[in-house]
Inverse folding.
């Protein structure tokens, strides 16, 4: 079985959720070094402690990174040295609008709407231009299902996700033979809707073939596959429980 033995894995957004799942899975697949980065020092330190508690082989390190700051992203990339795989899991999940609406569903200006691109699009764009990979390395971005199955009120999110698919293909062409791919998980509901969470989760579960939300560990397997398979690039991988079939 192919592993990540002797590989260095960097996970931006690795202190919680999918990012933490990817960091843990990387260690389980025998990565030599896993570096997680997030904007909150306390969360980074807590995540490093949790990962070390599994007593898996491999070194774990944490870095504080303001991924909204292009200069900070450039400095972070320069300090990494050579790495094998970089995962960008997208950063903070914004709160929804009042009444349970989707995040960014009431944007009235370019200035308000730009926030959705800052972490998910511009962050990995800047990182890709500055990070240095070992031969066989890859960059994995994180999108969502909204680009192909828009939600009422979610047209800005649909545009942002579609832009990520284009960015993935462009970066794959530009930086070949470094591979660039995109993981598109199903909706992440738990931080978006506050007091409306339970009713909205129940409603959307009925629109998923598997009738449940995915676990971070399940979604993490897609990232591991993209690291290990050396013959895939420029591709989106959907991990959404059959949501797009209903």
């Amino acid at each position: 079985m192919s592993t990540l033995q002797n590989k260095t894995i960097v996970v931006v957004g690795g202190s919680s959720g999918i990012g933490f799942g990817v960091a843990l899975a990387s260690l389980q697949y025998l990565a030599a070094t896993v570096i997680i980065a997030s904007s909150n020092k306390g969360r980074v330190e807590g995540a490093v402690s949790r990962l070390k508690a599994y007593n898996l082989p491999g070194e774990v390190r944490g870095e504080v990174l303001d991924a909204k700051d292009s200069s900070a992203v450039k400095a972070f990339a320069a300090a990494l040295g050579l790495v094998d795989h970089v995962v960008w899991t997208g950063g903070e999940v914004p709160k929804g609008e009042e009444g349970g609406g989707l995040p960014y569903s009431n944007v009235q200006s370019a200035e308000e709407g730009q926030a959705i691109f800052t972490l998910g699009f511009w962050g990995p764009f800047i990182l890709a231009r500055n990070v240095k990979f070992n031969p066989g390395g890859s960059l994995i971005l994180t999108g969502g299902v909204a680009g192909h199955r828009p939600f009422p009120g979610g047209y800005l999110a649909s545009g942002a996700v579609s832009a990520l698919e284009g960015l993935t293909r462009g970066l794959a062409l530009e930086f070949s033979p470094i591979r660039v791919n995109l993981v598109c998980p199903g909706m992440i509901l738990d931080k978006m809707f506050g007091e409306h969470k339970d009713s909205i989760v129940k409603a959307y579960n009925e629109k998923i073939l598997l009738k449940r939300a995915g676990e971070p560990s399940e979604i993490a397997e897609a990232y591991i596959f993209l690291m290990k398979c050396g013959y895939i690039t420029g591709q989106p991988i959907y991990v959404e429980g059959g949501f797009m079939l209903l």
